[in-house]
Specification:
Layout lengths: L1 H6 L17 E8 L6 H19 L22 E8 L4 H13 L5 E4 L3 H14 L3 E3 L15 E3 L4 H19 L5 E7 L2 H17 L2 E8 L7 H10 L3 E5 L2 H13 L8 E2 L7 H7 L7 E4 L12 H12 L5 H20 L4 H9 L3 E2 L9 E2 L13 E6 L2 E6 L13
Helix pairs in contact: 2-10, 2-11, 3-4, 5-6, 7-8, 8-9, 11-12
Amino acid sequence: MKRLALLATAAVFSFAAPAAHAADDIIIGVVYPLTGNAAPVGLDAKAAYEVAAEIINGKHDPIPMLMGKGGGLDKLGGAKIKLVFADSQNDPQKARAETERLITQEHAIAIVGSYTSATAVTISQVTERYELPYMSADNSSPSLNQRGLKWFFRTSPHDEMFSAAMFQFMKDEGAKTGHQVKSVALFYEDSIFGADSARVQGKLAEAAGIKVAADIKYRANSPSLSAEAQKLKAADADVMLPSSYTSDSILILKAMNEIGYKPKAILAQAAGFQESAFMTGAGALAEGAMSRSSFALDAVKSRPAIPAVNALYRAKNNKDLNDNTSRDVTALLVLADAINRAGSTNEAAIQKALVATDVKGSDTIMPWAGIKFDETGQNTMGTPVIQQVTGGMYHTVWPFDVAVQPAVVNW
């Protein structure tokens, strides 16, 4: 057995872990950047996972959602989820090493993570070798689930799904206002996330008859984006489509502001644009920016668990749930549910339970139709929303049937 051979050096000799008893902890490894430039995102994620574990493990009033009754995993004698965190420093090779450590030294039976798609690539390679599940909570590159992996599962939509929603929003908004988008500017970092996002958006623009007025790739974490801001100003597209993480999202808004340029519309591929640090760092410059999102904090009528979960997260982290942290909570709840249904810590049994996952959207905090994985491990029922910053907060503006207010667009 491949996993046995790989774990032999760590003195793990059993072919399959037995079912857990009440006193046993279910160890889940969590890989995120906890230091470095992306640390604010990783620390927010850490708080989200801790809240999800409290929901699963704790004694509390029932929350109307998956695993919301608390008390641990009932089919494993009330066993508790134990999270072991590892710092990737947002470095793919560090993520690889830390994932291996979590498996061989901490004896994690599954891994969740990891914010950037570049780290997800190496994490999922390790979990594939060791034959245990990787739950991709917030990695959005479409190529991640297209590599023939058997132990990769992603609850969230990926960028092809997100981008399709973004272009549908532009079409629907154009039909509503009588002003169709005629041009877009692609702005993306030089990573698997940025390249995949821009590739998909370029194809969708061509299919929709929309001109790509600029195709701008930049180095991630650049000290300056002044030259790129000038190119965006020269293109002056109807819609700027950025695929950028937090520091670059703030930097490009400031660079455009310095040259007196404000895009007619910004419609972001989430990432940095959905982070609390972005809202703080960009300040008034964020006003009017739009982003696709997995989550709608204002969808409380259809997702009654949102207030309770958000209150727990706010109590722990003094922030509201956002696009990323809501996905983190959901990913751990889905993984815990699969472990519970498996009734065992055997990785193959957990994998089989994940394959059989079928969760209604109303049993989550997400505005999705549900959670059901295809043969590649991708949730096919993730339905994104579009949100816009008004008054310093994101509000849902599309789909129109779940919008809390209309979008303000200038194209």
